[in-house]
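REQUEST ID: PR-0412
SUBMITTED BY: lab tech R.K.
PRIORITY: routine
TASK: structure prediction, single protein chain
INPUT:
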Amino acid sequence: MAALAVPAGDDGPVGLAALADGVVATFARDVDAAFFDAVTAAFLTRGLASPIVPSSATAPEQLLLEVAATGVPALAPVSIAGRCAVEGVEWRSLGPAAPRVRVVVAARLEAGGPALEAFLAAVHRSRAPRAVLHTVPA
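STATUS: complete
OUTPUT:
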């Protein structure tokens, strides 16, 4: 799901139709192809012109600093809103119309290690609405 980062104090309307009338930044396709495609499709499937301008940011904090510096709102995965903050930037929910991206984790049989165990534990603890951990016996 997507969240909208806006300059602090911006009380403008929030929603895809309202955003289509302006410019909205997001991670470039080469940074997050699934999210970029989902955001673009969310506008196009509603018959709206896509206002998306790819950001040069490669990290969440960079994207938020761009919002603070330029005043241009940015769409980002909602998971970022829960863990990243920059002074002068506020997060807004797009509600049920927010673009959604399915995440799939593929694995291969190999010896486990601390990094893999930590990753699988994080997936299992996730608060995402449909986070499911499937294990397959070796």
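NOTES: The chain has a mean pLDDT of 79.
REVIEWED BY: pending
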